[in-house]
Design a protein that fits this description.
The chain is built from 18 helices and ten strands. With 413 residues, the protein is of the alpha/beta class. It has two domains: 143 residues, Rossmann fold (3-Layer(aba) Sandwich), CATH 3.40.50.10380; 245 residues, Rossmann fold. A six-stranded mixed sheet has the order 7-6-5-8-9-10. It has a four-stranded parallel sheet with strand order 2-1-3-4.
Length: 413
């Protein structure tokens, strides 16, 4: 049931088809108009002189921009191309097809108009200033494929400075889906989050967000490691380049979230007796013997893209009870496409109520926790199986239930 039957020939065919698709259509998105233009009378209303009237209203009351323009339904998808998918720092031009794809997903799943903006910037400070300058045009900003640690500081700065929702999908979108998946995997294996020991491999943007989110949903013990080795609170500042720059990780250490292992330990040591492995690192790091050393019915989320830390087939053969990846060609897709459309839809629905009152709309911890619970509960107990811990991205219940939960959580605040 976890088998991937894609042969090398099929992969080459997929590459050719993907290139042909993008070339044939000239990209994946286009602009559409809402107002029919049949003659000069329509132009006079939609443009000059009629357009002056909503301009005057907005000048008198800036909140009216949500009433008279499409700002209320428009998301800016912003990237500098420094950490694109599994391709790395390929730059803003090469990253544009991904951002167009993100815009396609916003429209298809949530009915939101999204505009890809790949920016050629030289510093995180420049990226922040450009985003702030763009704020009048958009109802929300989705940050995408920005390398660590810049993505963390940029996200935090924009969330503080802007009154519209700002969300870094690679951090918090991944964390929401991972937490929902772990919640359901724990239920299926008879575990309670507070009794679990989770080993988290990869402490970049996604890893640090996952660690914090797992603590928020009650996971008892989290051990983390990155390319520099096992992370320890007492040596984190000196041990890892990430810890030197990322205040989020320092907060994790300071708040005693990460389990503090002994010096000299490695991934194999941490995994002995562990309940779950979560990887957001590099393909091929997890060996079958490590899986066999874990607790009974181990949970393995090998989420590195495009190649997971261990193949699902190998993990299952080694005794894993539940296996998830970030890919679409295996079951248990722990992919942020399950989260961001509904989260943005819910936040922007709430914004329609808040903006006329002059209230900012931000995506808060409470809203993300509501999204986790809503996503985890899309599948009924009868629908959940070891190879179906999360719904398909194509399930219409996903966006509907997440957006409703997020909007209500915003109202409650």
């Amino acid at each position: 049931m976890y088998q991937n039957n894609t042969s090398q020939d099929d992969k080459e065919t997929l590459k050719r088809r993907a290139l042909n698709l993008h070339e044939s259509y000239g990209g994946k998105i286009a602009t559409e108009i809402k107002i029919p233009i049949h003659g000069l009378a329509d132009l006079a209303l939609a443009y000059s002189p009629g357009v002056a009237e909503p301009c005057r209203k907005i000048a008198e009351n800036p909140a009216d921009i949500f009433r008279y323009t499409n700002k209320t339904n428009t998301v800016a998808v912003i990237s500098d191309g420094s950490a694109v998918l599994g391709l790395g720092n390929i730059g803003p031009r090469a990253g544009l097809p991904v951002m167009e794809g993100k815009a396609l997903l916003f429209k298809h799943f949530a009915g939101l108009d999204a505009v890809p903006l790949c920016l050629d910037v030289r510093s995180p400070e420049q990226l922040v200033e450009i985003c702030c300058a763009l704020e009048p045009n958009y109802g929300a900003i989705n940050l995408e494929d920005i390398a660590s640690p810049n993505c963390v500081t940029v996200t935090r700065e924009l969330q503080e400075r802007l009154s519209i929702p700002v969300f870094h999908d690679d951090q918090d979108g991944t964390a929401v889906v991972c937490a929902a998946a772990l919640r359901n995997a724990a239920l299926l294996t008879g575990r309670k989050p507070e009794d679990m020991r989770v080993v988290l491999c990869g402490m970049g943007a996604a890893g640090s967000a996952i660690a914090r989110t797992l603590k928020q949903i009650g996971v008892g013990q989290i051990a983390g490691l990155d390319k520099s080795g096992v992370l320890r609170r007492d040596t984190g500042e000196e041990k890892t380049e990430w810890a030197k720059h990322n205040f989020v990780l320092r907060e994790l250490f300071a708040e005693d979230i990460l389990h503090s292992p002994k010096a000299g330990q490695d991934l194999a040591d941490l995994l002995r007796g562990a309940d779950a492995f979560i990887g957001v690192s590099t393909g091929g790091l997890l060996r079958a013997d490590m899986v066999r050393s874990m607790a009974k019915d181990p949970i393995v989320f090998a989420m590195a893209n495009p190649d997971p830390e261990i193949s699902p087939e190998e993990a299952l053969a080694a005794g894993a009870k539940i296996v998830g990846t970030g890919r679409m060609d295996y079951p248990n897709r722990i992919n942020n496409v399950l989260a961001f459309p509904g989260i943005f839809r819910g936040a922007m629905l709430a914004q329609q109520e808040r903006a006329p009152k002059g209230l900012p709309t931000r995506i808060t911890t409470e809203m993300k926790l509501a999204a986790i619970e809503a996503l985890a509960e899309v599948l009924s107990p009868d629908e959940r199986r070891p190879d179906a811990i999360l719904p398909s991205p194509m399930d219409p219940r996903v966006v509907r239930q997440i957006s409703a939960a997020v909007c209500e959580a915003c109202r409650q605040q």
